[in-house]
């Protein structure tokens, strides 16, 4: 028997909030969209700090049965790093020190064990 269509299945593909404006997001989108912050003005070839937080707009639960399991950071499609979290003991915030030779859009993925993988972006 066929399950839900991919676009209706949170565990099919990567979920993206319909709007990048937090005021227009649903509560589900607010709780799961990873928010990328950059310190200062990044320059090519120089280290800068990037933080990725889930729950910036609305707190996500952090219980053994429902939590953010990991965050990954990319420069466009190029992998930068990944942080895994234990439920309850770790808040879903990851900080990376990044050096890029090309300043592309930063992309973050965050995975909720109950609601699938979610994407957030930031133009540099
Ligand atoms: Fe969730």
Automatic annotation (TrEMBL):
Name of the featured protein: Desulfoferrodoxin ferrous iron-binding domain-containing protein
Organism: Candidatus Iainarchaeum sp
Assigned protein family: Belongs to the desulfoferrodoxin family.
Taxon lineage: Archaea, Candidatus Iainarchaeota, Candidatus Iainarchaeia, Candidatus Iainarchaeales, Candidatus Iainarchaeaceae
Domain Desulfoferrodoxin ferrous iron-binding: 25-120
UniProt keyword list: Electron transport, Iron, Metal-binding, Transport
NCBIfam families to which the protein is assigned, alphabetical: neela_ferrous
InterPro entries attached to this UniProt entry: Desulfoferrodoxin_Fe-bd_dom (IPR002742), Desulfoferrodoxin_Fe-bd_dom_sf (IPR036073), Desulfoferrodoxin_SOR (IPR051233)
Pfam families named in the record: Desulfoferrodox (PF01880)
Keyword set includes Signal: no
Molecular function, one GO term: iron ion binding
